[in-house]
Structure formats: C-alpha cells, structure tokens
Amino acid sequence: MLKGIDPLLGPDLLRLLAAMGHGDELVIADANFPAASVARRLVRCDGVNVTQALAAILTLFPLDQYVPKPAMVMAVVGDPSATPDTYADFSRAIAVAEGKPVDLERIERFAFYERARQAFGVVATSDTRLYGNIIIAKGVVAPS
Fold first, then answer.
1. Strand, coil or helix: what is 143?
2. Which of 36, 39, 52, 104 could serve as 48's disulfide partner, Cβ 3.0–4.6 Å?
3. What is the pLDDT of residues 86-116, one digit of tens each?
C-alpha cells in the first residue's frame, strides 16, 4: 500500500501509467473486449468495473487538453446515437477528475478495435456491462 494512491492501482498498472507519454492512449475494457489479442501491453484489473478503474486511473492520469475529445467510447452497433448507461458513468467519473464535463467521442466498433491495437496499453476489467470500453488520451502534468 502507498499513501494517497487508490488501492485499485496495483504495481503493474502504476508502471504502465508512469511509462506513458503525452498523447499516448489507454484502453480500459470490459470483460467481453478482446484484450489479450488487441493489447500491446496488457494489465488486468479484475474484480472491478470499467467506471471504477477509470476513476482510479484518473486520480493520477491527466487527460490530453490539446485534443478536442480525449475520451472515446465504442458506438452502439446498429444505433450509433444510442447512449448506454456506461457512457453516463464514464462522463461523471471524467467530470469529477477533470473538474469539468468532457465530451465523449463515439467510434464505430471495428475502428475502436483498430484504435485499441495502436494504444499504449489495455486495462482489462471484469465488467460485464455492454459497451463498457473507453479509450483515454494522456495529457501533461505542468510544473507547479
């Protein structure tokens, strides 16, 4: 255990987050996501859902402030304008961490998988909710 660090952030996940640079992308995936076949670097975060993992990660991870939409979700197949409950959960977690609302970009399923293949890493959760996947782009931490 470390002071001030969410206990969901284990050593492998902390190492992955620390190794990422500005603009690198991270996928936080549900249990149905093909994480092992997609990931360049895979970290498991079992026993939690994507929203819990996202909230914990965002305690240390700044979103990229230089892109219009630093958070991306998989659009619902057959109804890309649909809004699953997971989207609202993600938006709330991001707004708390960033101190303001951040729009989610919706990406078609296969384009989302392709983008995930290019991501720095994938965090696989045991979330069974449908459309429980999000990609976040890392920003910078300015000097104090």
1. coil
2. 52
3. 999 999 999 999 999 999 999 999 999 999 9
d(CA 70, CA 103): 8
Note whether 138 and 26 are within 8 A (CB): yes
22 in active site: yes
Please provide the size of the chain in residues: 144
Annotated active-site residue in 22, 59, 66, 128: 22
* Strand partners for 45: 125
Give the C-alpha separation, 39 to 33, whole Å: 10
Whether 61 and 102 have beta carbons less than 8 Å apart is answered as no
Q: Closest Cα to residue 49, out of 17, 90, 88?
A: 90
- pTM for this model (two decimals): 0.96
Residue ranges of domains in the chain = 11-34+42-137
Q: What is the CATH number of domain 11-34+42-137?
A: 3.40.1650.10
CB distance 5 to 105 below 8 Å: no
The rounded distance, in Å, linking the Cα atoms of 109 and 131 is 10
pLDDT value at 144 more than 90: no
